Amino acid sequence: MTVLSWLVLVGALGPLRADDPIPLHIGGTFPMEAGSGGWAGGQACLPAVQMALEDVNSRPDVLPGYVLHMNTSNSKCQAGLATQQLYDLLYTPPTKLMLLAGCSPVTTVIAESAPVWKLVVVGFGRVFWPNFFP
């Protein structure tokens, strides 16, 4: 199921109750420690993403009837570890609306794998990967 069709399905279902917002899940793999990738940028990326989720969730005019949740893992900026985490995010419930990555080696793995799962990758360029949208 593509992200667009999933969003249409969620939109068609609408909120079940005004008091009980429907959760929309986001998966994120962030380099929380340097590991062999050499960059622990997740220590800055993750708090920024969490603040953005808090901002969206605190505004009743943005995604009314829904609440964003994030499932995270520590990629250590290692492509191999991130591949396992990508698989886990895709196949472990709940269904994720989108996936986030915090370093280039991990984003490369996701971009190379995107056509297999019909994922859209958003980033800085798409010359090498056709599913990559700047």
From TrEMBL:
Q: Which UniProt keywords apply?
A: G-protein coupled receptor, Glycoprotein, Membrane, Receptor, Signal, Transducer, Transmembrane, Transmembrane helix
Domain Receptor ligand binding region positions:
45-125
Task: Give this protein's Gene Ontology molecular function annotations.
Answer: G protein-coupled GABA receptor activity
The secretion signal range is: 1-18
GO CC field: G protein-coupled receptor heterodimeric complex
Q: Name one Pfam family in it.
A: ANF_receptor
Main subcellular localisation:
membrane
InterPro entries, per this entry? ANF_lig-bd_rcpt, GPCR3_GABA-B, Peripla_BP_I
The keyword Nucleotide-binding is assigned to this record: no
- Can you tell me which residues the record assigns to a coiled coil? none
Compartment(s) where it occurs, according to its Swiss-Prot or TrEMBL record: Membrane
What does the record list as GO biological process? Answer: gamma-aminobutyric acid signaling pathway
Q: Which PANTHER family match?
A: GABA-B RECEPTOR, GAMMA-AMINOBUTYRIC ACID TYPE B RECEPTOR SUBUNIT 1
Report the protein name in the record. Answer: Receptor ligand binding region domain-containing protein
Q: Can you name the source organism?
A: Ancylostoma caninum
